[in-house]
Write a structure and sequence with these properties.
The chain is of the alpha/beta class. It contains 24 helices and 17 strands. The longest helix has 19 residues, at 3-21. The structure holds 2'-deoxyguanosine-5'-triphosphate, calcium ion (2 copies) and zinc ion.
Length: 581
């Protein structure tokens, strides 16, 4: 048990308590959130601390400390168990629908007996929601639209990557530690970095499958194992997510990861290539076939690289394996020169505690960026229009002084005095043009008014893009994957404006955002729009998100030279300055 388990437990407690107390502002919810923040700022493993050591940490109260100890000592928390029963996963899912606050949720459960999305849909279709106090036909329609746009209904419901990836990474780490395990990888849509997944597929290389299956079965005692054979175990997590764990022989690991990574359509194209070469490709390897079509001698199986090579093509990076042209491109050695994490030279959407939602100080945030070896960094705290989180002119100018003062300590890292400008409903931006011109670099983004028409949203973005103090557009639609549909825009028109005004399109690495989406990135790449990959960090622990942004960029076929923050400092600065007044 470690920090991540404790933080996950507190997160779940805060979420379920919000439903229970019908408010995110409740004293208990705040206590769990403060504790989370306090633990994030403490380098020790909370599982190693006694109750009194825990309460000595500022932000952790007695009640929370005792819950953490209960969790560490017994593996569960009674309060949480009770809440989980009251709010099963199907109800939690309901609570995430925009317009479905805790009070409304309670009402529809009590009055209509609605316990899951299917029942909610039925109640909407029967026009029952509008009969409840506080709700009307408008909110009924709004909820119906959200369910539709989030893809929540039907049996093809999918899990947002933000919920699946941490769990998969954890399982991979645990399985890697099992004796006799040579290698482990998560495969499937998750490895392809699809923004939602149907299930998690994990492939383990080991000589003794039985031993691994035992560990999986024991390890997941809290979960629901519904299939367990000699080489495959499937289970459902508490949140209702399916995990498939398969064990293969180490010498077949490459063939297996390739097969289970898919996509299915990519596999089919590869299999055809194998057939054309009098061979057969399956999860065990690439084999010669004789005249009768019987598989014979092994050609390759150990690594994916060997198999792609034997198929006379370049290795296709997992995010591109969607059968959208990559097989032909790889065969012709014409895959794009894809951007990689190692190419990134700076982060250009980066908050400090100058922002109301920032959780680390300026010196802390800069120190971690410097340790990453970045050449430039734009500190982009929120502009004044963003209610609680923004800063007024005076505060911003003070902040600028602090940034300038810190610059002396970092001769190899150029610190840019930046801002995350808020795009208003009509495309207006914070401060005035003169004040905005003082910033070295800006990212402009939408944080409100999600319900305007396509036309209004598009015009709003175009107006912001046309402003000469804007360098980039942050998290294009403002979506939270599977939680909040973003604004609806005419992508063609927005890309055209970005191209014309030479403004960069951000790929936001926050797992719940991954915005612009990879499909939009692909269009932007074709259109010649410049890209920028950022972490939108609000805490020193969030810099790792750069990898997620890069994987999303790869899914959109983004070449290195089209991503401005891969450029050397001089080149980047020239671009950043050229249209600023
Ligand atoms: P998901 O789980 O719906 O997000 O999508 P995937 O791609 O992870 O699909 P999944 O979990 O059903 O299967 C994992 C991989 O296994 C899939 O990407 C390709 C491979 N696979 C599964 N079924 C077939 C099949 O019938 N034919 C071929 N060629 N490959 C398959
Ligand atoms: Ca899958
Ligand atoms: Ca699967
Ligand atoms: Zn931001």
């Amino acid at each position: 048990m470690d920090r991540r388990d404790v933080l996950a437990m507190l997160g779940e407690l805060a979420m379920l308590t919000t439903l229970e107390e019908e408010s995110p502002q409740s004293f208990k919810v705040r206590a769990y959130e403060n504790a989370t923040q306090a633990l994030e700022g403490d380098s020790r493993n909370p599982a190693d601390l006694s109750a009194s050591e825990l309460t000595k940490i500022k932000g952790i109260g007695k009640a929370t400390a005792s819950k953490i100890r209960e969790f560490v000592d017994t593996g569960s928390v009674e309060k949480l168990t009770v809440l989980r029963e009251k709010y099963p996963p199907s109800v939690v899912e309901l609570s995430r629908i925009p317009g479905m606050g805790p009070k409304t949720l309670k009402l529809i459960r009590a009055e209509l007996g609605v316990e899951d999305v299917e029942a909610l849909k039925a109640a909407i279709d029967a026009e029952k929601l509008r009969t409840l106090p506080g709700l009307g036909a408008t909110s009924e329609a709004k909820i119906a639209k959200a369910i539709d746009r989030l893809g929540l209904a039907g049996k093809n419901r999918r899990t947002p990557i933000a919920d699946a990836l941490p769990l998969a990474e954890r399982l991979v780490e645990d399985l890697a530690a099992v004796a006799g395990v040579a290698d482990v990888a998560f495969c499937g849509s998750l490895r392809r970095f699809s923004e939602t997944v149907g299930d998690i597929d994990i492939t383990v290389a080991a000589t003794d499958p039985g031993a691994v299956m035992d560990v999986v079965r024991n390890h997941i005692e809290a979960n629901d194992v519904f299939l367990s054979g000699e080489t495959k175990t499937s289970f459902l997590t508490a949140a209702g997510l399916q995990v498939d764990v398969r064990v293969v022989a180490p010498e077949q690991f490459g063939a297996a990861t390739m097969y289970f990574t898919g996509s299915k359509a990519h596999n089919i194209a590869l299999r055809q290539r194998a057939i054309n070469r009098k061979a057969i490709l399956n999860e065990y390897g690439l084999f010669h076939v004789d005249e009768e079509g019987v598989a014979g001698e092994l050609i390759a199986s150990k690594t994916e690289a060997e198999i792609y090579e034997a198929l006379e093509m370049d290795l296709v990076p997992p995010p591109m394996r969607e059968a959208t042209g990559e097989v032909d491109a790889a065969a012709e050695s014409e895959l794009p020169d894809l951007v990689e994490v190692a190419h990134i030279r700076g982060d250009l959407h980066y908050h400090t505690d100058r922002s109301g939602d920032g959780r680390s100080t300026l010196p802390e945030m800069v120190a971690v960026a410097a340790a990453k070896g970045y050449e430039y960094l734009a500190i982009t705290d929120h502009g004044e229009d963003l209610a609680i989180n923004g800063s007024n002119q005076e505060e911003m100018l003070e902040h600028r002084e602090a940034i300038r003062a810190l610059q002396g300590d970092y001769p190899d890292l150029t610190l840019l005095y930046g801002c995350e400008l808020n795009i208003g409903p009509k495309g207006g931006l914070d401060y005035d043009a003169e004040f905005r011109a003082l910033f070295d670099y800006t990212v402009a983004s939408v944080h409100s008014h999600f319900d305007l028409s396509v036309k209004e949203q598009t015009a709003r973005l175009v107006a912001a893009i046309a402003d000469p103090t804007v360098n980039s557009i942050g998290h294009l639609t403002g979506r939270y994957i599977g939680r909040r549909p973003g604004i609806e825009i005419d992508v063609e028109i927005v890309l055209e404006a970005l191209f014309t005004f030479d403004v960069a399109l951000e790929i936001n690495g926050a797992l719940q955002r991954l915005d612009a989406a990879s499909s939009v990135v692909r269009q932007a790449v074709d259109r010649g729009v410049k890209l920028v990959i950022n972490t939108d960090s609000h805490h020193t622990s969030e810099l790792g998100r750069m990898e997620y942004g890069v994987l999303t960029a790869q899914r959109g076929w983004a070449p290195r030279n089209q991503v401005v923050n891969t450029w050397p400092r001089e080149e980047f600065m020239t671009w950043a300055n050229h249209r600023r007044p």
